[in-house]
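User: My advisor, Dr. K., asked me to get a structural model of this assembly before our group meeting. I'm new to this, so sorry if the format is off. These are the inputs:
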Amino acid sequence: MIKKIVQVMTSFSIDHPRRTIGITLAVTLLFAWQFPRIMVDTDPKHMLPLTSPVRQYNDQVERDFALHPDVIALGIVNKRGIANKQTLSRIVELTRRIKQMPGVISRDVTSLSTIDNITSQTGELLVKPALDRVPESARELAAFRQALLENPLFINRIISPDGTATAIYVPIEQAANGKEIADQINKLLPQAFDDDQYYLAGDPVARDTFGTEMFRQMGLFSPLAGMVMALALWLMFHSLPLIAANMAVAMVSIIWCMGLLIGLGYPVHIMSSMSPVFLMAIATDSVHIFNEFAFRFSEVKDKRRAVLETMAVVADPVFYSDVTTAVGFAALATASIVPVKIFGLCVGFGTLVILLMSFTLVPAIMMLLREERIPRITHQTENGQKSRLADLGEFCIQHAKAIAIVGGLALLIALIGLSRIRVNNNMVHWFKSQSAVRTADRVMNAQLGGTSSGYLVVQGGREDIIKDPAMLRGIEGLQWELEKDPRVGKTFSVVDYVKRINRVLHDDNPAYDRIPDSVEAVGQYLFLFCMSAKPSDLDNVVDYPFRKANIFLQLKSWDAEVMAEVIRRTENYLAAYPLPDGAVVKPAGIAYFNLIWSNEVLWGMLESFLWGLVLVLILLVIQTRSLWWGLLTFLPLLFTIALIYGVVGLIGKDFDMPVAVLSTLSLGLAIDFAIHFVGRFHLHYAETSNLKESLIWTVTRPGKGIFLNGVLFALGFAVMIFADLTPYITVGVLMAAIMLLSALMSVIYLPGLIHLFQGILGLRRKG
Amino acid sequence: MQRWKWSLFLILILAVTGITAQAQEKEAATEIMQKKEQAFYYPGTDMQARVTMELVTAEGQKRLRVLSMLRKNDPMSMNQKYLLYFHEPGDVRRTAFLVWKYPGRDDDRWIFIPAVNMVRRVAAKDSRSSFVGSDFTYEDVSGRDVSADTHTLLKEEKLGNVDCYVIQSVPKTPADYIKKLTWVDKKTFLLLKEEYYDEQNTLARIFTADKIENIAVDGVAQGIPTVIRRTMKNVKSGHYTQTTFNSIAYNPGLEDEVFSERALQNPPQKWIK
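Assistant: The format is fine. Below is the predicted structure of the whole assembly, which you can bring to the meeting.
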């Protein structure tokens, strides 16, 4: 049935090449029409569906405590101390200007000039911004510095313990773009070279900078990869029309796939932004067709016959290799993460478009080639290549056992590496080590409490339970326990406010730096606090009925592992010292999101990937109509993946989102070569019934296509090593590696293994 | 030549009349604001009320504050004294707050904290900060010095069916707002509505007088018109505070001792029941 349709399409395209190209162009325009409606979404939170319990709970926490999910941190560092007239004046002015910016939630901008300091001066209770006026004299400056360092609420949050760093925390509206606001803030920063240094950090900056960069890099490297591939194609075929055809297939599939995605109203996510590069990679599959066509044409010297014969032999492998690739991606649809699903289906669709083009656009273009422009180069180099590849084939068959043992050893090492794989996602690490984003993050993590933030929400059973001194002591103990982890830079909660007020009320007597003994005292202290301070200060740490409390965490790393450790410590601590009234503690916030993300998204992708493997194996068994042949064809794929991820594990690279996405790609791509190899071997073996000759022929002729394809691909993606964002570098390196490895695996291992296991594979009887 | 001189003369005349007109307008606006201040914060010689404040989050969660408010005007000046005694929430009962207000300079404030039986002076550095966590500032509760802003009469218009002056006030020294529009009832000079614009030059808070009643008082035939329910809404956060004045009494005869630091710990029960 499918074969019939394929045949009909192919013969139509051969008979009406111009019309075929015309129709393709028209449909492509239709998809391209959708492009202006593009929307971008780089928020990792949106990876989880709106209805996911984690997201809903997080939204609830943000509402309960009037928290802002997106906060930019502007770090200001002065090695000689920030308590000098110039720096302080700049902080006042910067805060004022930042509060005026649209998109900034000005009422909750926190800096030295807005944060309330509660002090006691000559018996008078004083609540005012820490920096309500820039001190004039040296003595005033020293007193100001001392006042800051004496307030434990400030340490590591608004001032570093050594007094050399401070920060302005800028919450922004959810619709606002963090990078645009960061750029505006950048313009406000003094240009003069003096002691003040400024650093912009925080989740929205990283995320939106990444979003902007992502498109710049994709816009730069997709065409660059395309150009390198075109150049490589030129060196191989010396035929412009062939290059054009190859590129046309890639472009058509990219436009259809992205057009469909945009047209259906889905935002382009970090993952789907990589679709073009992936499709370009998959489209190189048509090299097999051109390679065969070039061989055929030099044999039969008749264009029409060459096209017909080419399409007849390559139809099966091309069909199955594209379908397995599509299945590999579509397997992502089993993931619970919406953007991952969409990405999988999107690239899966694009792959099917490539398949369609292979049977329509490609033969149509071949038909329109002028005969004198059909590649002759294959003819000239054929002998040289043939002998070299034939030697290789011979070598592999003769040393099959040794090669198999080497392979087994490599696999063993790979398994060790696989066991060491660390699933983690750290957005800051998506930027290069010397980039502004990462430098800012590093400096601020060294100086202050940390740029990554999370929450621990204490949920009591009844109203006003949080005011219970026993509850407060429980929270205090938990905070002490958490701060033992050096990666937890700062925790603060309602406890810190209560203790501060107790001490200040008692003339700054350190003996009173503790939780008072009665509910009334706690209630009245908090009442006193909100009599003067910003209401949000209290709202951020307790909910309205005083049933829940929020412990703020500042973490010095974006690694998911840090939050996982916080949760472990919390659980252990609570097991030993339970909170009163059966209160429970639940995590939330961005750091927690990253953890869930790592767990759910990445393990989810890993699971989908394994399902994909199974599906591909089933498909192979169906295609070859034999369990053993199916397994054999499957081997190079398994080998490639094991080796690559083994290396990832051995060198300690995180299994993060880009790597996870690649795993699915490797599935579809690495299998192609084996399918081509086994398919073509079968055809030739059926004709000649000579095992050894057939194997060497396969290594020589389709093997050439496989090598060309592999090298082409590796070259195209190698250019991404020069990208500014590490995920693209990872993609480039891994893709090139996957391609070269699976080409090698197919050409080196398959002949040896086929020779070695000819009995099981049912070849001996024929021979 | 002649024509040139005439034009110069004309321009001069126009400029002078323009400036004086503007000055007069400013004067008129300031006068309206002073009358508003008088009608809103100063009626009677003294006052007693039980006040309910409801703080409501954008999510609809509520906190309640119930307090007795006592006020006495200084007959010789614009100075006033306030005593705020809290009944609810339960754990803050007996917490009390004393304010001696002096327009033109920082107020004196004291607070009594019953749990530690302590009276503390509280510095009044920022009277623009929130009053007990509500959307009202201290100045919204006890009034703002009229001369702290530059006032301009923008227009006269109806608010509902009440004729109003609409006055724009711009603070002379930086405050939490850059501009305020005030709707003042032409007849009673009561404050009916305010709009506060923040540093982003967008609407941030809205005050509305929701319910007005005439409170009977000896010597005033139709009573004193009083805003007995008012709302301040933070447009940006969605949080709002509704304040209701129950059982207002004008001129109940509050003694000076009620407003002393000593009485703060133990206020006369008859005034705060």
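One thing worth pointing out at the meeting: The CA atoms of residues 421 and 649 of chain A lie 4 Å apart.

User: Perfect, thanks a lot.
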